[in-house]
Amino acid sequence: MAGVRRTLRRCSAALALAAPLLGAAPAAAGTGTITLATPGYELRVATDRLTLTTVRAGRTVLATAAGAFRFRIGGDWYLVREVTGSARDGDTLRVTAATDLPGVTVDLRITLRSDRYDVTWSLSGATADALSTAYDLNSAGHWYGHGENGDQTIQPWPLDSGQLVDTGFSPASYQVVSPFWYTASATGLRVDTGEPMDVRINSGGNGLGEFTVTGERPAASTVFVEDTPAEVYRDHIGLVGKPERSDTPYEQYATPLWNSWAQLYTEQNQDNVIDWARSLAEAGLDGHAVQVEESVIAADFGERFPDLPALSKELGRLGFDLGMWTGLYMPETAADFAYAVDHGYLLKDRSNSSQPCLFTWWNGRRTGLIDLANPAARQWYTEDLKTQTRESGVAGFKFDTAFFDDRCAPYPGATRADYVTYGTELADEFDQQGAGLRVAWNAAQAKGFATRTADKPATFGGLRASVSANLAVSTVGYPFVETDMIGGSLLYPPPTKAVLVRWAQAASLMPLMYASTSPTGVRDATTGEWVGYDRETVRLYRAAIATHERLAPYIWDQVRNTVKTGDPIMRPLFFDFPQDERSYTVSDEWMLGPAVLAAPKLDEGATRDIFLPSGVWRDVGRGTVVHGPVTLKDYAAPLGITPAFVNLKAKGAAKAYQALARTGAER
Question: Of 117, 124, 137, which is closest to residue 199 (Cα–Cα)?
Answer without folding.
Answer: 137
